[in-house]
C-alpha cells in the first residue's frame, strides 16, 4: 500500500465530517474538495447561503480558507472544470449535513477562589 502520510492537503469544513485529502486519497468513489466561490457581487448571496448551509456561522470562519467535500452535494450539483470539480452556481449542499450550527462561545473569565 502506498504511503500517503505526506498528503495532508484539504479538509472538509462541515462540522462532523472527517474527510480530508490525506484520509480519502485513492478512495472510490473519489472525494474532491471544492473551494467556496469568490466573494464577488454576483456570488455574495450564494456564498453566504453556502456558509449557512454547512452550519459554519461562527465568527472566525473564513470561507476563503476552507473547502467542502463532494460527500455533501448531489452529483448533479457539481461541474467538471479544467481544474477538477466545482459547485454549480447557485447550488447548495444537501447531503450529510449537521443539524446545528457551530457556535463559538467565549467563557466568562475565571475568578480566583476566595480564601
From TrEMBL:
| Record keywords, A-Z | DNA-binding, Metal-binding, Zinc, Zinc-finger
**InterPro entries from the UniProt entry:** THAP_Znf
Task: List each copy of the THAP-type domain by range.
Answer: 8-96
SMART domains, per this entry? THAP
What the entry lists under Pfam families is as follows: THAP
Name of the protein this chain belongs to: Uncharacterized protein LOC106817735
Q: Which gene encodes it?
A: LOC106817735
